[in-house]
Every structure is written in C-alpha cells, then in structure tokens.
Amino acid sequence: MLDLRRLTLICEFARRGSIAATASSLGYSASAVSQQLAALEREAGVALIDRTSRSAELTDAGRRLVEHAERILSLVESAESDLSSHAATPSGRVVVTAFPTAAVAFAPALARSLRRHRELSLRLMQSRSGRGMREVESGEVDIALVDDWWGRVRQHATLTVFPLLNDPLVLAVPRRHRLADPDAAIDPAELRDEAWMATPEGEPSRTAVDRLLADVGGAPPVAWEFEGLGTILSLVAKGTGIAAVPALSLAAGVRGVVVREFPGETIERRIYAVARASSVHRASVAAVLRALHVAAGYLAADLPHLSLAAQ
Hints:
Elements: H1 4-16, H2 19-26, H3 30-44, E1 49-51, E2 56-58, H4 60-85, E3 92-98, H5 100-114, E4 120-126, H6 132-138, E5 143-148, E6 159-174, H7 188-191, E7 197-198, H8 204-212, E8 224-225, H9 229-237, E9 243-246, E10 257-261, E11 268-276, H10 283-302, E12 307-308
C-alpha cells in the first residue's frame, strides 16, 4: 500500500522541481527525501524519479502518480474535515499566511477572537504578495490572506475564496503639508511635482500608483523607493514626502499622517481569505475563518476608508 506521507512528499517534489528544494521546504535533509522517494518507488513497483548526477525529475509514471496523489490527499483531508466538523471544540494548530500589511492589521483582532478556544493554536506568518494561494494549494498553510488589485482572484476547483475587505488607495501627507487641510483641493496633475515615496517597481501598490496618475502623464520619477508600507508611512510622518498607500496600511496607527481621498475613480484592491475546499469544515479552520470575518468588521469600523466586501 502506498504511504500517505510519501505521496505528500512526491507532490511537493513535483511543485519544487528538485530534491534539495523539497528538502528545504519540508525541513528534511536531502538524503532523507531521496530515501523516502526511493521507498515510494519500491511500493509502487515502477520508477517514479529519473535521476542523473546533476538533477532529478518525474518520469511519466511519476507524473501520473502525482495526479492520483493530489486527489487522494484531498479526499483524506475532506474526511478529516468532516469528522472534525462534528467536534464540539476546535483544536490543533492552524497556519495562516498573510501579506505584511494584512498580518499587522488582522493580528490583534485574531488574537482577541481566538483566545476563548484554549485547545486551538494559531501560527500567523508573513509572505510576499502573490504566494499565498500557492501555499494553501500545496498544503504548506491552511489559510492565506491575499490581495487582488486586478480582479483575478476567483473560486477554484480545490480552493474556497472568502471576500473580506475593499481597500482603496489613499493619499498620505505629513500633518503640516498644505493638503492636510481637508478643504484643500487635490489636483492629480499638481501631485506630480510633489516629493513622492513609493514601493519598488513591480510591487502591486506601485503599479496602482501608476494607474492613479496615468491620466496626468503617468507617475513622476520616484527618488525614494522603500520596501514596506510601514517604512513609507513613518517617513511621511516625518515630513520627507507624500505617498499613495492602501488604507489597510493605516491600521498600524502611524501618528503625524493625514489621509485624504483621491478625486475621481477609486482604485482599490480586494482582500480575501483563501482555504482549501477540503478543509473549510474542519472545526479549527472554520473557527479561524470566522475570526477573520470578525476582524474584517472591526477594521472596517475603525478605518473610515475601508469597507466590507460583498460576499
């Protein structure tokens, strides 16, 4: 009989593309991964990995086994989820990954909501934008908080998507800046002459800024690029310049910053929680998903520019 742990291993190998990367992902040594894959080949009775002195890749039989294994592992998780859904008390560990701004914003409310579940533990990690859904699908994490500026996040055959927040781009200026006056008109063309700070090119929020200023000749050359919206807001507070940031980044509570809405069409991202469809009824995962919805409600109430996303 094929061992489930080894099936998980070969699926991870298929995603990572090498024994070394698989070992790093799972926290094993490369020799242990190689030994377990060899044991799986003996169980299967066919060659699953084509090895050379420099590389290893799946054989045709290996690729077919991965397809079967993904379905088998999904069914096993569905069975565990079904049994867990009838448990009175959520228990065990739930791993959540979030892009940095969401991790900072959601953590306090999550901690408050989950405190009553004494047998449930939460691990909240930060990951770069764009990786969350892959990490959920691969089984590395149970839930991901992801952002979507382009309307590309959709329900998936193996993933369930839960809309949480609409997060618009807002203008952050120092308290003594002329635009800190709520009666001062914001002219996008004049903004091009300001001292801008932004995330590096290629970051989703930077691309959103380019869209915002596209009608007035595009975004100006940015003298200062910083990775991390928290860093940018702290510099705005010190009077270094201005920035366009997602409203959720203000949850960190930076003082000395005044926030204004941009005129015209709103540019915003939508924030989602994503989980494997086979796990959403597991009591522990369901409890964390409920806590995320509660946290979204708190954030929408506390930050005037945020709004709850339609379900």
